[in-house]
Amino acid sequence: MTKKKARLSGMIGILGTMALVGAVAPQAPAAAESSDPGIVTIVDQPGVVTVTIPDPKIKDKGPAAVAPENGDTPQPDSGPGQAELSDEPAVDYDPEYQPDPEGASAASRTGGAYSTLSAYVGNNSASHCSINFPPCKFNIYKSASRTITPPGGKSGLLKSYGKALVDVYTITGCCFTKADYYNTTSYSQWGGTSPYNATSIKHRDVWDIDYFALSWSFGGSPSGTVNHGSGRISYSNTVKNTWRVNHSVQHVYLKVSSGRVSKVKYEVHGSYGFGSNFYTTDAYSSVALP
Predict the structure, then answer these.
(1) In Å, how far are 98, 118, 165 from 182, measured between CA atoms?
(2) What pLDDT does residue 75 have?
(3) What gap in Å lies between CA 64 and CA 29, rounded to an integer?
(4) CB 49 within 8 A of CB 247
(5) At 14, phi and psi to the nearest 5?
(6) Burial class (CB in 10 A: 0-12, 13-18, 19+), 144
(7) How does DSSP classify residue 220?
(8) So which residues are the signal peptide here (predicted)?
């Protein structure tokens, strides 16, 4: 048994069959039609990840907002400048985050009846989880925002936000061995109006686990996912001349063999270019397993 950051020759062999190390995330392909006239949808890998950007013909970022002191949840304001960006879960139970990919009537992965959709789901917390009483589900989410003034422009808000439903595989009476991230939804956005668009926005999702195990592996991730090693993978893309980039990733999993997962983590990052000047927003969420 070794800790997460140990370098194991056996791990390298396993990971070599799972993904290309250091793969470069692709640039967005040609745009596809969308049912929303204000959104351009880019299907990077059908059924796995969808990248969307605002239609450049739509010049409306919504009501104005300002960044609060804690930089987490902007509040509406009468002044011009940036869009309302607050969309964090507000309650402990949110039906939007109750997918049951294996079917509520299917046999449990641990031998009993699979949990119903009414099972408790935590928010950035696994305090309700137990190796003796699966399932273990929780929403993991975080945002980061800051106010900047681009060269030659006016003050505006940058924000990155991401969320996912995590379902942790439990071997009853033993340990947690796998983290399934379902419906990861995230964005990075420039909310200012001068300039209206950033020169470029790079948006990145990171899925990560801490563990004590002999090896780890991953799957379900979009083509172009980067394997950083030690239980950490990421997906990113860069869009030019836009003010927002969204990601919607259907399913990603990280799992270990001969060991246990001790912590589930998720990050979302934005990098915004305004000419030759760049700014970043970085949000981190970490949930310790009992």
Answers:
(1) 10, 17, 5
(2) 35
(3) 32
(4) yes
(5) -65, -45
(6) buried
(7) S
(8) 1-30
**Quick check: pTM over 0.90?**
no
Radius of gyration for the alpha carbons in the chain, expressed in angstroms and rounded: 20
**Residue in 270, 278, 123 with CA at minimum distance from that of residue 187:** 270
Residue 264's SS3 state is strand
Residue with tokens 């246990």: 260
> What pLDDT, on a 0 to 100 scale, did the predictor assign at position 56?
66
Judge contact between 82 and 153, C-beta under 8 A. Answer: no
- Contact by Cβ (8 Å): 55, 38: yes
Please tell me the predicted confidence (pLDDT) of residue 53. 77
Q: How far apart are CA 240 and CA 259, in angstroms?
A: 43
CA 170 to chain centroid: 22
Asked whether 281 and 158 are in contact (CB, 8 A), the reply is: yes
C-beta separation of 265 from 144 below 8 A:
no
Please, what's the b/e burial string for 168-206 (b: 16 or more CB within 10 A of its CB; e: otherwise)? bbbeeeebbbbbbbbebbbbbbbbbbebebbbbbbbbbb
